[in-house]
C-alpha cells in the first residue's frame, strides 16, 4: 500500500470526518497545547528563536528540563531546557529519555512510560511515529506549518487515528470508540479487551454457584428491561474500570524489573562513557606516537644528510691537500723548466753579443779576443757556431715537445694540463742531456 508523501490540515480533517468524527475534537483542542518562544542553537552553533511546542520532560518525569518540539516540515527536532535559557538539542540516541505529559501521554499505547522505550521494538518505533504525527498535526492546526512531508512508508492519517482513539479511551469515552471505529481497533484497546477476558471465569463460577445455574443479578440484567448495546454505558464503564485496575496491577508488577533495567542501562551508559574516554585517550596516544615517529624519521633523514655532507667535506679536504701537494711538486717542475728556458735564452743572447759577452768573466764558452784579426775572426766564428748550436737545440726541443704533446693527447683523448706539459718538457731535456752529454739544466 502506498501513502502520500505530503499532508495538509485538510487531509487530516477529511479523514477524521470519515472515520472518527466524534473523537477528533478531543485531539483538535488547541487549548490543550502550550507554545512558547524558545531560544536555541542550530547545527552551526548560531543562536535562533522559534515558537516551540511543549511535549514533556527530559530524563526525569517531573523535575527534568522541559522538552520542546520544533520542525520546519522535514523532520521534528527536539530541544530541552528552560524557556528562559538557550535550549540544547536532544541527541537521537536519547529520544527514549523523553517523558511525555498530558495530553500526549494519553495518545500512546503505554502513556509515554520510560520503560516502554528502552528497547527499540517495532511497536515502540510505531508509537514514536504516532507522537511525531501528533506534533505535526498540532503545528498544522496552529498555523506553524502549511505542509508536512514524510516518507512513502508512513501513513500519518492512520497514526493520528490511533492517537485519537487512545485519547478518547483514556478520557473515559469508550462508547464513542466502539461506535465510530472502522477497521481494526488500536493496540491498546485490543490488549485491554484481552485483559478483560481473563476476568470472565469468575462470573461463570458465580453463576454455577447458584442453585439454578445463574445468578439473580444476571437474571435481572437479561430480563425484558435489558438495555440495548448503545445504552450499556454503565456496563462498559464497569469493564473499563476493571481493565484499568488490571493494567495498573501489571504496571506495579513490572516496576521492580523496570527499575533494575533502568539501573543497568545507566550503568551501561557509564561504562560506555568510560570506554569512549579510553578510546579518545588511545587515539590521542596513537596520534602522538605517529607524530613522534614522523619527527624521528625526519631527524634520522637529516642525520643521514649531514653524514653525507660530512663525508663529502672530508673528501673535498683530502682532495684539497692532495692538490696542494701536487701544486707544490708542479711548482718545482715549473721552476726547473723556467730555469732551462732562461739558460738557453741567455746562452743565445750571450753568443749573439760577443763584445758584451767578452766583458762578462763568468759567461760560459767565452773566448777573449786578441789584437790579432785572425783570432778575432776565429772568435766570431766560434760564437756564431755557439749561437747556431743553441738555436738548433732550442728548435729541436720545441719540435720534440710538440710531437710528444700531440702523442699524449691522442692517447688520453683529453687536454693536457700545465704540469703534464712541464713533465714532458723535462723528459725531453733529460733525453738531450743523456744523448749529447751537455749540461742544459742550470746547476743548483
UniProtKB/TrEMBL annotation:
It comes from the Eukaryota. Keywords: Coiled coil. Residues 224-238 have a biased composition (Low complexity). Residues 194-238, 351-375 are annotated as: Disordered. Residues 282-309 form a coiled coil. This is Uncharacterized protein. It comes from Pyrenophora teres f. teres (strain 0-1).
